[in-house]
Design a protein that fits this description.
five-stranded mixed β-sheet; ROK; 3 domains; DNA-binding; globular; Nucleotidyltransferase, domain 5; Arc Repressor Mutant, subunit A; ATPase_NBD; single chain; 15 strands; alpha/beta; transcription
Length: about 400
């Protein structure tokens, strides 16, 4: 009986999420059209939509139907007013807290300096800033439903644990569990690459023909998310993807904060590229970079001018990333690699180099049709996507319906 009840709850969660997603993406939509798209019986649609309307998560809206006269049709749309969540973004030594409606509208936002060291200081500092933010926004607070946290590092979204972080000296910090006890709210802890990949998915899913996708984030960290027909790989494995901690060039002895040596991140992240540029500059006396303060903007600008050092740096990074990416293409049959990086900004040189090296290392069956494109979403743009997924898969919806 327990298993049967659990199965019924899972079906309810799935169906509620499907109905909400279709209304969000296609509303205003009639109940008849909703029943066809969701492939659910009209009676099920009536029951689910009544519950969502009673909770003020959807509402009815009259809309004209082209080619028909008379009374306008009645369709369903999302009702987001009053439903809010807290979005926390930790980048470098700053923390940004935003109060958002579930339709992504930002109601308030505050940025704080954030320099804790160790588990206790991290928890205490974060809790204090959340309390300060709530206190300062009392006049506009309504139904706060969840907290999302985006932070780099080695972490597990499924357990809400930060295992390690390069700057904050964190070790196995169960931050999601702690904040849920403090606030009573579900906490969604993820690396930024998850939010970036989901944002791209929700924005382009309907029109993009490639469904088997690798999303590469190459910024201060190096990480990937794998998407297959709208489902992220870790949804099934419940294990985080730690692409940036694959060994890149053995015996270089670049120590990584994860405890290993020569991880991809120590060679191909933006700080690593800038360090290599400084180290190699003496060997390139005619380089464009001698006239500049070295930055990624200058390296990309130099590559456009065919500066030999800048071209070398970009090609080297592409070559180092190509081997593990080619292995993933062979294993997963990936059709599309999306790259989110400052290396994309001024030209397609990095994407062309990456494509060339992956073609050499992966099977022609896949590489011959592989597409590599840039993705331009920012982490700030993407912070709503974690809550959006929790609504679409029904997990957060059921919590809201149950009060």
């Amino acid at each position: 009986m327990v298993n049967q009840t659990g199965h019924i709850d899972q079906i309810k969660q799935l169906n509620t999420g499907i109905v909400y997603r279709i209304i969000d993406q296609h509303g205003p939509i009639s109940r008849i059209a909703l029943s066809k798209q969701a492939q659910l019986a009209p009676a099920s649609i009536t029951k689910i939509t009544r519950e969502l309307m009673d909770a003020h998560l959807i509402k009815e809206l009259e809309f004209p139907v082209l080619g028909l006269r008379g009374r306008p049709a009645v369709g369903l749309v999302i009702e987001s007013e009053g439903w809010q969540f807290l979005a926390i973004r930790i980048e470098g030594q700053k923390l940004t807290i935003s109060l958002k409606e579930i339709n992504a509208v930002t109601l308030a936002q505050t940025e704080y300096p954030f320099t804790p060291l160790g588990n206790s200081e991290f928890i205490d500092f974060l809790s204090e800033l959340i309390s300060q933010f709530f206190a300062s926004q009392q006049k506009i607070l309504e139904r706060v439903t969840a907290i999302s946290i985006l932070i780099d590092g080695i972490l597990d979204p499924h357990t809400g644990v930060i295992y390690q972080h390069s700057s904050f000296k964190i070790h196995q910090l169960a931050i999601a569990e702690y904040l849920t006890k403090q606030t009573g709210l579900p906490v969604y802890l993820h690396p930024p690459v998850d939010a970036l990949a989901l944002m791209d998915l929700f924005s382009h899913q309907e029109k993009r023909k490639e469904k088997n996708i690798i999303y590469l984030q190459l910024q201060n960290v190096v990480n990937v998310m794998v998407l297959n027909h709208g489902t992220t790989l870790d949804t099934n494995t419940h294990r985080p993807i730690l692409f940036g901690h694959t060994q890149c060039e053995p015996e270089q002895n670049n120590v990584c904060y994860c405890g290993s040596y020569d991880c991809l991140e120590t060679h191909t992240s933006i700080p690593a590229i800038l360090q290599q540029a400084n180290n190699l500059l003496i060997n390139y006396p005619d380089s464009f970079l001698h006239q500049q303060d070295i930055s990624m903007d200058k390296i990309c600008a130099g590559a456009i001018l065919n500066d030999s050092l800048c071209v070398y740096l970009i090609n080297k990074v592409a070559q180092q990333l190509a081997k593990p990416l080619a292995l993933m293409v062979n294993l997963l049959g990936s059709q599309l690699i999306l790259v989110n990086s400052p290396l994309n900004q001024d030209s397609d040189l990095f994407l062309k180099c990456l494509h060339k090296h992956i073609n050499k290392l992966s099977i022609p069956l896949y590489s011959s049709t592989l597409v590599i494109e840039k993705s331009t979403f920012s982490i700030k743009d993407s912070e709503t996507s974690l809550i959006q997924r929790a609504l679409y898969d029904g997990s957060l919806l059921l919590q809201l319906l149950q009060g």
